[in-house]
Amino acid sequence: MGTAGGARHEVREEELRPGARVVVRHLLNDGSASDALGELLAADAQTLVVATRRGTVRVARSAVLAAKAVPPPPQRPERPHRAVGVADLERVMAAHWRAAQEEPLGDWLLRAAGGFTSRANSCLALGSPGVDLPAALAGVRAFYAARGLPAVVAVPHEVDSPDAPHDGPAGELDAALAGAGWGLRTPTLVLTAATRRLPRPHPAPPGLALELSPTPDEGWLGAYRYRGTPLPAAGRALLESAQAQVFVSVRRGAEVVALARGSLSPGWVGLTAVEVSEEHRRRGLGRLLLAAVAGWGLERGAASTYLQVAQDNAAARALYASAGFTVHHGYRYRVAP
């Protein structure tokens, strides 16, 4: 990242968001350099504050040589896309799909975005809420009631098999919510793969054109459907909430017949919003979209790729498995009675 006494190196301001895992190379008083690696607690025009394993480090902006976000640390001796822990990958995914309103509840994260998508309008339950469960759930209810939304908790969990929750704290929380009458919604699987092992970008079939853009145009936005409905007003902000994103479309003339969104964070590319119009299915367009997003991510240093798929979507799961994805973990939503 640079050497002491040399020219100032790259500071990636767009990555310096509180909560991100970062490394900050900075000058010490004796002229040598040191790295502060850990969670970024605060960032302003004067100071960066990093929680490291040795304690909190405050770095004056004038001493910063380089600063960037880095992927989560490995939790087991596996390839990067398999080595990451459930909680760390959930935090990565949350940064790719950021709600307009986010508030911490201990380690939990309350999220609201006008009701558009469950991911952006649910409490992400990771770690401890800092209070007992009844008090935590009362806080969740109050947060969503104030916004006219149903109270929803997203419960990530390990999986013993692709369709079964793992025992442990997440399983205990899920069981407690079920016992309190919180209904089950949309069990979902998180799949991961090594980006370089995914299909390579290739041309669209005859008569169709593949396009990539950093922003969604009216054709992309008009063709996107979430659960069969047009994009609401809050949707575009969510689609453009990552560090960087790409909007992929397959077009027949001016008509968008297939689309997807790719998003980026250090080490990771995410695939979301995949849609293929009914009359163009079974033509390999899903694989084409996946390859385009993976190629875009690989060019930007994303060694790992993730996506989320409904547990009961057998066709999509088969496509992704054939491309090289495996199940990393699962999550399910619990909705207040």
Automatic annotation (TrEMBL):
Please give the SUPFAM superfamilies that the UniProt record associates with this protein: Acyl-CoA N-acyltransferases (Nat)
Keyword Protein transport carried by entry: no
Where do the N-acetyltransferase domain residues begin and end? 210-337
Instruction: Quote any Pfam family the record assigns.
Output: SH3_Rv0428c
Q: Where is the signal peptide?
A: none
What InterPro entries does the record point to? Acyl_CoA_acyltransferase, GNAT_dom, Rv0428c-like_C, SH3_Rv0428c, YpeA/RimI_acetyltransf
Key words, A-Z = Acyltransferase, Transferase
Keyword Iron on this protein? no
Which superkingdom?
Bacteria
* One Gene Ontology term of the molecular function aspect: acyltransferase activity, transferring groups other than amino-acyl groups
Kindly provide the name given to this protein in its UniProt entry: Acetyltransferase (GNAT) family protein
